[in-house]
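Table S2 (text version). Query chain:
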Amino acid sequence: MSQGLTLTTSQDTKDLPSEVPVAVLRALAAMARGSKRHQAELGVALQRAGLSLSAVEQHGVVARLRDAEFIEQVIPLDDGGVLLSVTSAGMQRAGR
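Corresponding structure-token output:
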């Protein structure tokens, strides 16, 4: 994601297939499993999973996952990345 989170709704992902947010959640959960706080970096998780999304799509998917309470504590990083925590509900939904 680039330069902070400016979108607060999931409207920008309404045209994405419904499996995209699930695939992103699974990628985040796979990375979060190795962290005590269930944290993951969005760009790295997407890259490891072989997923390619535009910045707008990433913002929208993050908004969707946050609205569903599958992620929390979304923190923009100085390098343009985004650190976030996957909730217990998110880990269960991802099947991890």
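Notes on Table S2: The chain has four helices and three strands. Residues 1-9 have pLDDT under 50 and may be disordered.
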